[in-house]
Amino acid sequence: MNLEIINKPLQLEIFGFSGVAINEDYAAKAFELMDRMWKVVKSKQIKNKGKNIWVYEANHVVFAGVELEQEENDTGLEKKVVNLGNYAYYKHIGPYQLIKQSGQNMRNEIERRGFQKEYPYIEIYGHWMPDETKLETELLMAIKK
């Protein structure tokens, strides 16, 4: 696995909605939140960078959002600032249904290298394309040395 350990701070400022994944159904909750977020973004014509960003946190909390081109007032969206110090990075290329396995492979590799995974875990979805074998999703896991 081509996993990178990044020791440089990263800050993401995203806008969307958060919720709790009931029965640990993270995908269903994230899709629900993402759909809600895009309805607001499109109806208010909010300029954005177009990539879905899902943030998984402790206690089954999920946040689905997007980076805006510029911060706007009165969007009706929650603002979330995510700060990562040390984190593992992996670019998943392929169908979305294989992301869960890539995430598990990341956790295994992080442990094998002697690190401990922390929250948050982030998925940044690249732009959609019909050929699912070319879909790109960036996976970031906070780690403790």
Plain-language structure description:
The chain is 22% helix and 39% strand. With 145 residues, the chain is of the alpha+beta class. The protein has a single domain (4-144), classed as Multidrug-efflux Transporter 1 Regulator Bmrr, Chain A (Alpha-Beta Barrel), CATH 3.20.80. The chain has an eight-stranded antiparallel beta sheet with strand order 1-6-8-7-3-4-2-5, covered by helices on one side. Strand 3 and strand 4 form a beta hairpin. The chain is globular, with a radius of gyration of 15 Å.
**Within the largest sheet, what's the order of strands?**
1-6-8-7-3-4-2-5
According to CATH, what is the topology? Multidrug-efflux Transporter 1 Regulator Bmrr, Chain A
User: Class by helix and strand content?
Assistant: alpha+beta
Major sheet characteristics: 8 strands, antiparallel
**What is the level 1 CATH name?**
Alpha Beta
Please give the domain count: 1
Average pLDDT reading:
95
> Using DSSP, what is the number of strands?
8
Poorly predicted runs are none
Q: Given the structure, what is the number of helices?
A: 2
Q: Which radius of gyration do the C-alpha atoms yield?
A: 15 Å
Overall shape: globular
Cα separation of the termini: 19 Å
Order of helices and strands: EEHEEEEHEE
The fraction of residues in strands falls at: 35-45%
At the fourth level of CATH, the homologous superfamily is Regulatory factor, effector binding domain
Can you give the helix content as a percent range? 10-25%
- Tell me what the CATH architecture is: Alpha-Beta Barrel
